[in-house]
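Example (one chain per record):
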Amino acid sequence: MKKYSIYIGTLAVGLILGWLIFGGSQASNQDHNHEVGETGNEMWTCSMHPQIMQPEFGDCPICGMDLIPAETSAEGLAADQFKLTENAMALANIQTTVIGDTKDKAAINNLVLSGTILANDKATAMQTAHFGGRIEKLYFKSKGELIKQGALIASIYSPELVTAQNELIEALNIKEAQPELYKAVRNKLKYWKISEQQIQSIEQTKKVIANFNMYANTTGYIDVIFVEEGNHVKEGDPLFKVTNLNSVWANFDVYEQDIKNIKTGQTITITLNAYAGKSINAKINYIDPILNSATRTVSIRTTLKNTDNALKPGMLISGQVQLATNDDNSTRLSIPQSAVLWTGKRSVVYIKTSKEAPIFELREVSLGNSVGSNYIVLSGLEKGEEIVTNGTFTIDAAAQLQGKKSMMNPKGGKTTTGHEGHTAMTNSNSNTKHEDTSSNEHLVVSTGFQKELKLVFDSYIALKNALVADNPTEVQSNAKQLGKIITEVDMKLLADASAHKAWMSLEKELKNTAGAIANTLDIKIQRDHFIGLSNNIIKGVSSFGINQKVYEQFCPMADGNKGASWLSTEKIINNPYFGESMLKCGSITQTIQ
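Predicted structure:
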């Protein structure tokens, strides 16, 4: 019995010691493994290359920067929403505005319209040949020349007139015997608009005139010339199309939702870009019965007297129509122009979706005319929503990096940077820094990078000048050169993470738009892609600077009357979106120092 007691006591002590050693160790290991499991589940990414995902802390294999913890949860966020930290908001100077009814009195009480001066079609006439023959001499050969009624316009050899003159001379000899025949031959010449003086000259000299002079039967400026010297014409063939500019049309486009506010007989106050401070009051006398399905607008017009020839077809004008009631316009909203990002035919803004946290998402909007520094909102926004009004480009870059919907990536998803083969960056020239005071979204970069960006800008200017010259072949060549220069920009000169991130977003879009321009000889398509190229060049120059004064210029008629911008090194307006057809359309909207 004593023996069994010793065995039982020994077993009990062994069990207790085993539990203390192995049980405690197992519990400790479980706790340790739990911690390891938490660490092992955390992923690390690169702030500049978000496609990089590593299970542990280290360096980015692309740029060598320290990895940061990746977001592990998007709890409470919709698929297209993303969140920024308060620190990031402060550093980027992100500012937002709550949308309300426009406070601009002009926008509330007046409908503001954009338009152009047009030739009055009712004052257009066709100068035709009064008789058939060969044009020996043409006295007006240039478009735009002024022809006055009765002016000598051409000398024509006409076999029919030679025959008719001989008949007149013969009828003159038997005038007394056959007065009716004489009268018929004489009237035949008058029907061909041969003057009484010319007929009397033939009767007096009894000599046939080989080349007859033709005189203008209307006054106006030559719009089209249909013939040249040596051409044969028939009776009634057109020689010139002539436009009388004593009166002109002021033509405006009215958006679909504003048509109900427009009536014939309403007064419209017209101001001209060419004559600052001058305004004209006129009555609306025509509303187009057909809606333009492409622009969703209806044309309206008024007729203006132009006796001093101050109003020239093609001039840009604006008009204000006093609205009959404010009931409809009480819901008209406006947003600052700084809130809008343009890409091709799309216009987008960023909405702050939470009052408590900096959560944002992209919203596509439809905009109407500009009123001062605002745009009237046609659709896409509601009163009380909060939008980003400063730092919009920074928000867009953040959206792209997080794979959310963005200006140039409307479907969302992670984007590739095109720098997957880069090694670690150096701090070359990082001691010399520049701050661009022309934009609130300025970034600190080295002078070395500014020089590289200056090469990109110079190539862009060469492309712009080719569009101004209406030369699609040169445009294509310059676009290829621009794409090559963009690719050669040395990213190692950007040591600052924010600047690096901003440039990567820009670089991709610059290469895409330059490539699209280089892939076509259709100048209309080239100009469409130039809109996006210019928007990104403007952002790049504003953000990084190139140590040169640059002018941002804007034409409200470009991009289907939505307006488009470009950069220039001089104040003179030379419009790349229209070339010679509307060379001076535009104005300077910003000077970037």
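Caption: The chain has a mean pLDDT of 77.
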